[in-house]
Amino acid sequence: MNIFRILRVSLRALTRNKMRTFLTALGIIIGVGSVIAMVSIGTGAKIAIQNRFNAMGTNLLFVRPGSMNLGGVRTGFGGRSTLKIGDVEAIEKDCPSVKGTSPNINTQGQVIYLNKNWRTQIQGVSEKYPEIRKWEIDQGTFFDEEQLQNGEKVCVLGADVKQYLFEDGEDPLGKVIRIRRVPFTIVGILKSKGQAAGMGRRDDMICVPYTTASRRLVRQTFIQSIDVAAISAKAIPLAQQEIETLLRIRHNIDPGAADDFNVRNMADIAENAESAIGVLTLLLGSIAAISLLVGGIGIMNIMLVSVTERIREIGIRMSIGARERDILLQFLAEAVVLSLIGGFLGIGLGLGLSKLLKYIPIFSRIQTVVSLGSVILSFLFAGSVGVFFGFYPARKASKLDPIEALRYE
Questions:
Q1: What pLDDT, in 10s, does the model give residues 357-382?
Q2: 386 in helix, strand or coil?
Q3: How many other CB atoms are found less than 10 A from the CB of residue 55?
Q4: Looking at residue 198, what is its pLDDT?
Q5: Taking the CA atoms of the chain, what radius of gyration do you get in angstroms?
Q6: With contact defined as beta carbons under 8 Å apart, do 306 and 64 qualify?
Q7: 156 contacts: CB under 8 Å, gap ≥ 6
Q8: Do 27 and 341 meet the contact criterion of CB atoms below 8 Å apart?
Q9: How far apart are the C-alpha atoms of 257 and 53, rounded to whole Å?
Q10: β-strand pairing of 98-113 with 182-190
Q11: Distances (CA, A) of 358 to 16, 30, 65, 263, 362
Q12: Of 250, 187, 190, 229, nearest to 98 (Cα)?
């Protein structure tokens, strides 16, 4: 029996009871659709994270204070107050692989303009912050070195803060806002960078000179972190080594003792984030794949029923010359065709779900991306399910005794 006749007979057998065939294929449809939709969430989140880190720059390093031990309990990085402005100046001066630095003093505060107010992130930074973080100015300018050294009360708004405090079409430049009751004059507006993989909006912030933030807002002399730009992406390992050596000397850390600071580069942070997303994607895909196995069990069940219903048909075919291999291939083909039909419909369901997910609040911030690999893998897996779960019923049918089959009522 040729393959085309086998497929034609298989389709004819499956269409005898359309509702039963559809319900049997439904497990495969849901399984394939779920796998594609779940993997699309993970892939979209991974791409969004990559885009965010690329937008921040591939030559970035971050220096933060180390952790501390309080009664046997270790705090996270940033738990100690070990970084000073002198450390920032020394890094820029004595590390040849460093292009620029920006100390950071971060806090939150209520921002008031006339009868409007908004709570946002306040970042005390240097005049080099836009260059280091690759952040463009939409209106006005960023504060300069003179304003930084003088500790002037000037600020640059993120796009979201501008939207919340000012009316459409209103020019915020030169206006005075109050941050923790301290008046600040707006000198610029940052260009919007938008959402990033569900990790919060980057535009909900205000930049002020770190000197002003230190004296007026937080009243502290230490800094919370240092953004460092290496001269190139290739120079990051050398720059990291230079910074670590310099800070160990400045902080009088003995050889073999633990550092009181932490230096991380953008590549490490991106790799850790992508690894976490990869594990989440695998978990989501594995959970969705369980429904494929359930669908396979349904196929085995319905094929066993089909064999029982068609025992006399099997006996007649064997009596006129059909071999065991022909019967085996016939019922195996029916199981595979059923799985592949479910696979095709499941692909359509998965593509539709990946488009509809953005309208669900919990997934609205994540851009779903359907990869060709996930579609092909899901389809092949669906076919494999048909072969695996269809083999036992097909073998059972091929091993029937022709005489007993003809006698079956």
A1: 777 766 666 677 787 877 888 888 88
A2: helix
A3: 14
A4: 42
A5: 33
A6: no
A7: 137, 140, 142, 143, 186, 187, 188, 189, 190, 206, 207, 208
A8: no
A9: 32
A10: unpaired
A11: 39, 19, 39, 37, 8
A12: 229
Mean pLDDT of 325-333: 83
Residue with tokens 């690894």: 275
Q: What tokens were used for 273? A: 């984030």
**Spatial contact of 366 and 197, defined as CB atoms under 8 Å apart:** yes
Closest CA relative to residue 151, chosen from 177, 181, 119, 124 = 124
What span, in angstroms and rounded, lies between the C-alpha atoms of 254 and 248?
8
Strands 182-190 and 261-265: unpaired
Confidence of residue 253 (pLDDT cuts 50, 70, 90): confident
* 331: amino acid identity, one letter: F
Residue type, 321: G
* Main-chain phi, psi angles of 121, to 5 degrees: -85, 130
With b meaning 16 or more CB within 10 Å and e meaning fewer, what string describes 283-313? ebbeebbebbeebbebbbebbeebbeebbee
Is residue 143 over pLDDT 90?
A: yes
Confidence of residue 77 (pLDDT cuts 50, 70, 90): very low
